[in-house]
Amino acid sequence: MEHFLLAQSENPDWSDAIDECFSQLGTLPDESTLGFIYVTDLHAQHLGDILRKIKALTVLDDWVGTVGMAVCATRKEFIEQPAIVMLVTDIPEKDYTIFASPKHLPAQLKTDGVQVAVVHGDPRNGDLPNIIHKLPEDIGNGYLIGGLTSSDNYHYQIAGEINEGLLSGVVFNDSVSLVTGISQGCSPIGKTHTITECDSNIVVHLDNRPALDVMKEEIGEVLARDLNRIGGYIFAGFPISGSDTGDYTVRNLMGIDTNSGALAIGEYIQTGSKMMFCKRDGSTAINDLQKMVSKLKTRAKSNIKGGLYFSCLGRGQHMFGVQHKELELIADILGDVPLVGFYANGEIAGDQLYGYTGVLLLFL
């Protein structure tokens, strides 16, 4: 793989935006095969027209992507504005398989090597966590990376054609050299607890004590006196069983019952599960992102051709203080490699659905 070409446009007219992108791309190499495209919500209603025009302007039929309320490219975020970003690659056609849904994956896809799938999902599908958990096994020794579409109105994905409602994307076989990493946007506080009583998404007892009492002890006296201040700052964390890197998923606190001491969590849970409390922490997020990207650069050995980045809607300028900071941190370490992505309604890594994370894939 030699050619990874980046294009981006902020033009409010979708057709003019495509023209600008292809002007930046120039004459595509004959080896060009697979393209990634992300459009902001303000262009979403025209996504079908966008895809048709792209295919008319080039011999490329293989496109993968989705809609985001914000999209990103090297060193830049496009938030609440019209924008299109695209990355054209020359990954050999024999080394990838595009699928519109997991049911459309060929049976012979399974191999002994690790196969990475870039996936985009529809957040309105209530079965998506189960699909995400099962898909790596379905493709063999699989690993997923991607995110859920974020949109006010149009939850479209692209996997060769426009689709919605499921999980779609592209699977790379083990001939494609790449590295992936995940960066947390929250940091744990206190210790890990055992859920000893719960009902659906309601945590009643932690370590045989009222869940609210445990949380108050760990968040500190100031916040415990005014629980209205914890919204968007304190979260529930669930350690991932078997993780050798201490990974955990983060879920929102949805409600508090001060009479019973129960907590409502944005996740269905089971008695015996492990849980901790986390805080949203900008400085920790910066350090964790820099650490993750530096590790990937070391693993890549300066052979980076291009990348995809999927971040949470709660990150970006909301977490890092100013617009573009997150993408600049990545580029300061990697250099200005061609990179595109979007801000998701949930991030996917491995077989888990995360929140407040940034997940990065680098092609080598």
Outline the secondary-structure elements.
Elements: E1 5-9, H1 14-25, E2 34-40, H2 47-57, E3 62-68, E4 70-73, E5 76-79, E6 84-89, E7 96-99, E8 114-121, H3 128-138, E9 141-148, E10 157-159, E11 161-163, E12 167-172, E13 178-184, E14 186-199, E15 202-206, E16 209-210, H4 211-219, H5 221-225, E17 234-239, E18 248-251, E19 253-257, E20 262-265, E21 274-280, H6 282-300, E22 306-312, H7 317-320, H8 325-334, E23 339-344, E24 347-350, E25 352-354, E26 357-363
Parallel strand pairs: 2-3, 8-9, 22-23
Antiparallel strand pairs: 1-6, 2-6, 3-10, 4-5, 4-23, 7-12, 8-12, 9-24, 10-11, 13-26, 14-15, 14-21, 15-16, 15-20, 17-18, 17-21, 19-20, 22-26, 24-25
How much of the sequence is in beta strands?
A: 35-45%
Give the overall shape, derived from the CA principal axes: globular
Number of domains: 2
DSSP strand count = 26
Report the C-alpha radius of gyration, rounded. 21 Å
Largest sheet: 8 strands, antiparallel
What features would you describe in this structure?
By secondary structure, this protein is of the alpha+beta class. The protein folds into two domains: 258 residues, no CATH class; 95 residues, Elongation Factor Tu (Ef-tu), domain 3, CATH 2.40.30. Helix content is 22%, strand content 40%. The protein has eight helices and 26 strands. Strands 14, 15, 16, 17, 18, 19, 20 and 21 form an eight-stranded antiparallel β-sheet that branches. A six-stranded mixed β-sheet has the order 1-6-2-3-10-11, with helices on one face. The N and C termini lie close together (8 Å).
